[in-house]
Amino acid sequence: MAHDHQHEHTDIDWAEMAPLLEAQAELYTPLHEHALAWLGKKQTEPGLIVDVGSGPGVVSCLLADAFPGARVVAVDGSEPLLELARARAERLGVADRFGTLTGELPDIMGDLEYPADLIWASHSLHHLGDQRAGIAAYAERLVSGGTLALVEGGLPTRFLPRDIGIGRPGLQARLDAVQEDWFAEMRAALPGSVAVAEDWPALLTAAGLKPSGTRSFLLDLPAPTPDRARTVAAATLSRIRERFGDDLDATDRATLDRLLDPDDKASVHHRTDLFVLAARTVHTAVRTG
Description:
Blueprint: H1 18-27, H2 29-40, E1 48-52, H3 58-66, E2 71-76, H4 79-91, E3 98-102, E4 116-122, H5 131-140, E5 142-151, E6 155-158, H6 171-189, H7 200-206, E7 209-221, H8 227-244, H9 250-260, E8 276-287
Parallel strand pairs: 1-2, 1-4, 2-3, 4-5
Antiparallel strand pairs: 5-8, 6-8, 7-8
């Protein structure tokens, strides 16, 4: 499974990551808009939408925009991120139908005032030790006919060609491998960690839901990219360099250093071949009972 978040002894400081989380989500807006348009054909007029593991609320506000008749509740364990979400909702004029709920998932879902018509859970389930129990908890908070949209899987984000003219070709594939190792360590270290095969439709079915579709959505920003893409690429690679530097060989460390040096013409700040290509997969299921 591909991930764009990194580690330090498998712990994640979400508040410290806020600028990157916001910048990434904003860059991915076209992908999310396509996903929500697809979702809108499945759940046409939801009254309550819950964004589980919302982070700074970029997608929460996109949900509010895509479903103008809905109330949106952003749920997260990080209050600093939810402060950003509330500020964004205020700035975008949706604060009157926007709320937040702070607490540990999935237990905090029990504090919702009433069941949801749509639950959006993007790359948050895999931070729960028992993912099967997490899905069951989300399913319990759906109305009959409500939809759970689970965003897990997809493909690793690519910023650079295989051969970038410096270092050894295939740098990003090696960075993926290091992050996959970290992801396995992170999962194993979670409280109550339970290993499950990542057959998401089967897990949704096991929770009593009826799978209603799976689709992947593409973010394709070809070279030359806008400055905001360069900013995200630099921030992403910088975190990788900081967190995984010791896991890389000297050549790859030196290549990353050049890619991150604003004064180096070979860096992501100046390269003409920098692009953004990513895929995110959405699995949907309906509560029928």
